[in-house]
Automatic annotation (TrEMBL):
Segments forming domain F-box: 58-98
Superkingdom, natural source: Eukaryota
Family annotation (InterPro entries): F-box-like_dom_sf, F-box_dom, LRR_dom_sf
UniProt-recorded name of the protein: F-box domain-containing protein
Naturally occurring in which organism (per UniProt): Hibiscus sabdariffa (roselle)
Length: 397
């Protein structure tokens, strides 16, 4: 159960924000909580007149918005009916972000190639049950860590209780079978955006999305992206508007197919990709260091074409070192969620390097190239930006 002094401290820290929204009611709330939290600071008559459940719901919701998922599900909803009502407010549950939670696992040589500790599985199940009960079907964005290995049963349970899901970020599918993901997709009629790993047999999934998710428009693939995957997208999702292949291995012919055949595509992100050209034999394949004019011409019709092939770029170096299959566990926590195609990214350009939480400046800065048409000519504009942990689920409103 949440301790009173802790709640008092949280209210004290957020009083300025609350004061802007609720200037007339906040003072009384702080006084009530302050008196309760201070030994001997409350009269007997006050104990009868003022009760926890009388605290304004709007204030409680604002306070609970500063809690992480572990605090929200720690039992504060059981304090009283008012607190449970505040804990179930839709403002708290638009997004269920589990990107800080990882499975306790070991790698094994046979499918599903990971073994997850039973206690770790129980922790995730318990967290999902509490969160989904409090959310009351209001979750629209669901984010899993790339080392959080969800089972079929956990995915089905989640899908049944998130009927209005629009964005799913789930990079790890090792324990999810074909039947499990297809069952979930059939329940997510409103799904618009998906971040997924590279899989060897994409047709069954993309066909399911095409048949059930009529508003689907955004796809991010984390891992090698081949001709077969591209052809499957072209066949089943020809109206897709946003495609991100950031930090993947990509063959030049595959890129040309995307530009030629996805006529409704508006945003394409190939930043930090390992771009491979495969000439006729016996010539060996080679890594492309820059885009040729034919690709730039084809990409000029896009609203945004994001590229980065800079030898000095830290992310480009990492993609090459990992041979197009990123070992995200080796790098900063959260960098796997980054995507330069986010609309919110533009608000950061021109502000200079941001400070990390540790207080240091991020360096080196990445270069993102945007192809632009000026009259009849085509040019590439280089934008120097810091590394940012922004996800594809923020790309479009």
């Amino acid at each position: 159960m949440l301790k009173i002094p802790n709640l008092y401290n949280i209210i004290y820290r957020t009083k300025f924000n609350l004061g802007i929204l609720l200037p007339l009611r906040f003072g009384d709330a702080v006084k009530v909580l302050g008196d309760i939290g201070k030994p001997g600071g409350m009269k007997e008559s006050d104990r009868v007149a003022r009760r926890w459940e009388d605290l304004d719901i709007d204030i409680l919701v604002k306070i609970f918005q500063s809690f992480d998922i572990y605090q929200l599900t720690s039992g504060i909803a059981q304090v009283c009916s008012s607190w449970r009502m505040a804990c179930c407010d839709p403002l708290l549950w638009r997004t269920l972000d589990l990107s800080m939670m990882k499975s306790n696992f070991i790698k094994i040589p046979l499918e599903p190639y990971v073994y997850v500790d039973a206690r770790s599985d129980k922790t995730l199940t318990r967290l999902l049950k509490t969160s989904l009960s409090l959310s009351q079907g209001n979750i629209m964005t669901l984010i899993f860590h790339f080392n959080l290995y969800v089972s079929d049963d956990q995915l089905t349970y989640t899908a049944e209780r998130c009927p209005h899901l629009r964005r799913l970020v789930m990079p790890a599918w090792n324990r999810i079978k074909k039947t499990g993901i297809c069952k979930a997709i059939r329940m997510w009629k409103d799904l618009e955006s998906l971040t997924m790993p590279s899989i060897s047999n994409p047709p069954y999934l993309l066909e399911e999305i095409a048949n059930n998710c009529k508003n689907f428009s955004e796809l991010k693939v984390m891992g090698p992206f081949d001709n077969f995957f591209a052809a499957t997208i072209i066949m089943y999702l020809p109206n897709i508007r946003v495609l991100s292949l950031r930090c993947s291995m990509l063959v030049k012919d595959t890129l040309i197919s995307i530009l030629d055949d996805l006529q409704n595509l508006e945003v394409l992100n190939i930043s930090h990709c390992l771009l491979i050209e495969i000439p006729p034999p016996p010539a060996p394949r080679r890594i492309m260091r820059e885009l040729d004019q034919s690709i730039l011409e084809k990409a000029s019709r896009l609203r945004e074409f994001l590229t980065c092939m800079n030898d000095s770029c830290s992310m480009c170096q990492r993609t090459r070192n990992d041979e197009g299959l990123m070992r995200w566990y080796k790098y900063e926590e959260g960098v796997w969620k980054a995507d330069e195609g986010c609309r919110s990214w533009y608000s950061e350009v021109g502000k200079g390097p941001r400070k990390k939480e540790t207080g240091g400046l991020e360096s080196p800065m990445d270069t993102v190239s945007v192809v632009a048409r000026v009259g009849n000519s085509i040019s590439i504009v280089d934008l120097f930006v810091p590394n940012m942990n922004l996800g594809l689920y923020d790309m479009l409103d």
